[in-house]
Amino acid sequence: MAQPKLRVVGPPAKRPAAAPAPERPPPKKAGGRYTRFVQLMKLVLPSIAVIVAATVVILPQIQDRVEGFRLGLASINVTDTSGQKLINARYTGMDAKNQPFTVTADTAAPLDPQSNTIALDKPKADVTLENGTWIALSALGGIYSRPDQILELSGDVNLFHDAGYEFHTSIALVDLGKGAAYGDQAVAGQGPFGTVKSTGFQIFDKGARIIFTGKSTLVLFPGFDGQKK
Questions:
Q1: pLDDT tens digit string along 138-183?
Q2: At 97, is the pLDDT very low, low, confident or very high (cuts 50, 70, 90)?
Q3: Which residues have C-beta within 8 Å of that of residue 118, sequence separation ≥ 6?
């Protein structure tokens, strides 16, 4: 009887070890990003506050200077190579009785710098009387001589008196220093007394005495007794 063969079995073979998993970087902490943002805001916000405060303080001063310049002799706009034009021009003076008057215009340009004669566009003149009343004149154009205080008006000339009188003509010569005005063109007027038309007029003592020259037509309102001014 054959003997059974014995088979020697050795220890089981070792399995190769698995490769280690790659390490993941530790997650960034949100607190670091927030901290940097807070530090940045600590620098930016004060700077913004300083800029805003400076703007609030400086801007009104700049605006005041600009407005003050406009209200003075007005801004200068060069119109041609021979001269300059004043925008919103304003001239003031005193008459022989120390009563103030003002001459304004949309634009003013020097005609003769040596004689100080100025061409005016849409001039207006305001005269204040001793008793507090006023006279206002306006026209489409005019020439003002500052040394002589003479204002020549032309084109749609209008004269208004505080007492309710008004006159309209095409040309008028106004002596602001003496408080007188003259005209030799057709004039139409009205007031508390009635209406009047003539071919010329003369005004003395700032409206205290008015003379209508040439062919004149006067229509009195009913009830006017000739004593009212």
A1: 999 999 998 899 999 999 999 998 888 899 999 999 999 888 899 9
A2: confident
A3: 89, 91, 108, 109, 110, 111, 143, 144, 145, 146
**Domain 76-220, CATH:** 2.60.450.10
Confidence of residue 8 (pLDDT cuts 50, 70, 90): very low
Task: For the chain, give every domain's residue range.
Answer: 32-71, 76-220
Structure tokens at 10: 């050795």
pTM given for the model: 0.59
DSSP character string of 144-176: EETTTTEEEEEEEEEEEETTS-EEEEEEEEEET
Q: Max Cα separation, the chain? A: 179
**C-alpha to C-alpha distance for 160 and 134, rounded to whole angstroms:** 8
The closest of 86, 142, 92 to 109, measured between CA atoms, is 86
Residue 212 near residue 165, CB atoms below 8 Å: no
Amino acid at 103: V
* Short-list 112, 186, 166, 167, CA closest to 144: 112
Angle 15-21-26 from CA coordinates, rounded to 5° = 160
Helix, strand or coil for residue 112? strand
